[in-house]
Amino acid sequence: MFKKLTVSVFLLCVTTAQAFAAGGHGDHHEASSGGLPQLDVTTYPGQIFWMIVTFVIMHIFFSRKSLPQISKTIEGRTDRIKNDLDTAEKLKDEVEAVQKSYEDSLTGARAEASKLFHDIEADIKARSDKYAKDFHEKSASQINELEKAIVDARKKAMDEMSDVAATIAAEAAEKIIGVRPDDKAAHAVVKSLNEAA
Amino acid sequence: MADPIHQFVITPLMGEENSFIVAGYDLSFTNSALWMFIAVAVSTLFLSVAMRKSEMVPGRMQMGAEMLYEFVSKMVNENIGSKGRQYFPFVFTLFMFILMGNILGLLPFAFTYTSHLVVTGFLAVLVFVMTIAFGVINHGIKFFGLFLPAGLPWWLVPFVLPLELISFFVRPITHSVRLFANMMAGHMILKIVIGFAITAASAGGLWVLLGIMPVLFNVVMMLFELLVAGIQAYVFAILACVYLKDSVDLHH
């Protein structure tokens, strides 16, 4: 609002001043022979001359100083922005690479851990299986031995019993009938009786 | 009443005894020359002060200078193409010279040198001659193939050739008259309308109150003329680009 007002007041002042300028000129009509001043050929050489002078000054100043200066500034800024963007891009790539390697190592570690876990599990299983088998075999052989020992002991006991029976039979026969039978014959009889039983 | 034509009169400023006459031509320092020098001073001073520090983050003035640069640079690139870089300083100077003439001419007591046909005509002829000269330098005799569009059937040549020739040679006229007529008409309207205010004011009595109307009208006109000043400088420069394009590119 304030800006608009300022502009309006400024334009009003300029317009009023224009009015004074116009009024000032109005008083003294010069002897310019009427017609448009633009068509007054005598002014042409002067206008062209001064225009060439000023245009050349402007051109030299702009092309030698202002324009290179501005283009250098703009290019510098563009380069700077491009460099910054490139650096940002590079850093982003680096971060991504680091992230990737981190994730790779994490995955590797996970795989290794799971492998180790499996290995250990298998190892434990194998070892416990082996122990169980060994124990089985060992206990089976011991049982066999014991059974064999029992059988032997029984056989031995039976044999001794046969001996005892033969001896008792022989003694009994001696007492009853006063005849001492041959030990061997007694044994054979007991034996045959045993087998028949 | 103020004479609306009077503002265009060229007057020597140094007096009769200092008139500068070379080979019979009067080259005296005039109001037109003075405002040309003021234009040079203002434009060079503006660009120098604006780019004094050449900061990475531009301030207002530097922003303005850079916008002017980008504006003309874009205009040259879009209308002439990449080969147009050689013309960039010329087009920039042309644009600034006309823009300064148009805008400074709106100041009170100022002289508008772009309201003179010889000034706009000289600039237009300069562009015209540059087009032909650089066209012949770049393309030799082939440059004149410009007047015969590619793929034109032979029996159309007698019809198209005169048209192309006329449209080519009429260029400096339309180019210069457009700017000159716009500037002259605008300044005449400003002066005529303000003349009404002066007439009303000198009539006295209640007529003075009526004088406020043309003043208010001129406030709007001033804004409009400011717009025209910019647009006409832009139009002149862009047409210069379009014409100069023919000197680097033959196909159109």
Descriptive notes:
The complex is a heterodimer of chains A (197) and B (252). By secondary structure, chain A is mainly α. Helix content of chain A is 88%, strand content 0%. Chain A has three helices and no strands. Chain A is rod-shaped, with a radius of gyration of 68 Å. About 5% of the residues of chain A have low confidence. Chain B is mostly helical and 252 residues long. Chain B is 66% helix and 2% strand. The chains are: A mainly alpha (197), B mainly alpha (252). The interface between A and B is large, with 54 and 68 residues.
Distance between termini of chain B?
52 Å
Name the chain pair whose interface involves the most residues: A-B, 54 and 68 residues
Portion in helices of chain A? over 70%
Low-pLDDT sequence parts of chain A: 24-32
What tags apply to this protein structure?
heterodimer, A: 197 residues, mainly alpha, 3 helices, rod-shaped, B: 252 residues, 8 helices, 2 strands, globular
Provide a compact summary of the structure.
The complex is a heterodimer of chains A (197) and B (252). Chain A is mainly α.
Question: Helix and strand layout, with pairings?
Answer:
The complex is a heterodimer of chains A (197) and B (252).
Chain A: H1 2-27, H2 44-177, H3 183-196
Chain B: E1 21-22, E2 25-26, H1 31-50, H2 60-79, H3 88-104, H4 117-139, H5 157-169, H6 171-203, H7 207-210, H8 212-248
Antiparallel strand pairs in B: 1-2
